[in-house]
Amino acid sequence: MHPATQARLQIHFCVLLWGFTAILGKLITLPALLLVWWRMLLVVAALLLVPKVWRGLFAMPARMRWAYAGIGVLVALHWLTFYAAIKLANASVGATCIALGPVFLAFIEPWIARRRFDPRELMIAAAVVPGVAMVVGGVPNGMRIGIAVGVLSALFVALFGSLNKRMVEHGDPLTVTCIELGTGTLFLTLLAPILPHSGAAFVLPDRHDALLLLVLLFGCTLLPFSLALVALRHLSAFGVQMVTNLEPVYSIVLAIVLLGEQRELDYWFYAGVVVILAAVFAHPLLNRRKHRAEQAELLGVAETHSLIE
Questions:
Q1: Residue 2: CA atoms inside 13 Å, Cβ hemisphere, count?
Q2: Does residue 290 lie within any of the structural domains?
Q3: Which of 67, 130, 209, 279 is most buried (CB neighbours < 10 A)?
Q4: Nearest 10 degrees: CA dihedral of 256, 32, 81, 218?
Q5: What is residue 252's three-state secondary structure?
């Protein structure tokens, strides 16, 4: 098989695995904060077993460690609000809100990267607005707070994706991941006592949740992260973005098949999803000539749900 073809298949497989993240978030019974805390803690524990991570930690200047630690707080807030949106609404709503990430990027990235604002990106942002309105109109009233939290999660993913892009060449990816998730774990530990209904005591998950957390750790985090790093060597930035844009689609289809969520949402919701995704897919079409160096950032925006991309 040609390396480029194999790489495309690997990225599709990675995005499919990331699509399960929202499903697992719904199936795990832990509150959102505990779910994220355990996910981060387990990933950090696994990374600390890798000698390369320790070498990277000792070699990195203290100033850079603090910078990545600050990004780690944003990552923790993103994951916390993402899973909270799923708990407050459902997996389809959470995945749809994350698709708004590129819209926020249209405004945030020029500010962080100190480049000129691109009017074409404003067009994408404007095109998403009616889609969001239809999504809001297509969910029960009790789920609308979940949409608000999910939109906040998309804002956080745009922030840390832009910052990671700016600093992408200053550290080994695994080392950076360890710093960011380690800081995120500490931040959530300090945040827990002041959040209502967060579960102040970090109790051990039961057997059901522990098994699903391990699937989330290895199947939706470490495995796709490793495969994606290999695949990125053979793909263009445009190709990667087109595939990663499919993550909300995979999540919504999986939610329908596995959770039967189509019974909770009406046709206005799915019409709004189509409008949002059409705008998101237009983003790489308008920017397909950008440099290959953007590849690392593209995964950062897409994940909800890989490692610290």
A1: 5
A2: yes
A3: 279
A4: -70
A5: helix
Give the 3-state secondary structure of residue 138: coil
Domain total of the chain: 1
Q: Which domain holds residue 284?
A: 3-302
Q: Does a structural domain hold residue 307?
A: no
Rounded to 5°, angle at Cα 198 from 37 and 18: 40
- CA–CA gap between residue 18 and residue 282 (Å, rounded): 22
Environment class of 57 (CB within 10 Å of its CB; exposed 0-12, middle 13-18, buried 19+): middle
Asked if residue 289 is part of any domain, the answer here is: yes
Establish if 95 belongs to a structural domain: yes
Instruction: Please list the pLDDT of the chain residue by residue as tens digits (309 residues).
Output: 778 788 888 888 988 999 999 999 999 999 999 999 999 999 999 999 999 999 999 999 999 999 999 999 999 999 999 999 999 999 999 988 888 887 888 788 788 877 777 777 777 777 888 888 898 888 888 899 999 999 999 999 889 888 877 776 677 888 888 999 999 999 999 988 887 655 545 678 999 999 999 999 889 988 887 787 677 677 765 566 667 778 888 999 999 999 998 888 888 999 988 888 888 777 666 665 554 444 444 444 444 444 444
- Report H helices in the chain: 3-27, 32-47, 51-59, 62-88, 91-98, 101-113, 119-137, 144-166, 173-191, 207-214, 223-231, 237-244, 247-254, 267-286, 295-302
pTM: 0.85
Torsion on CA atoms 206, 211, 217, 223, rounded to nearest 10? 180
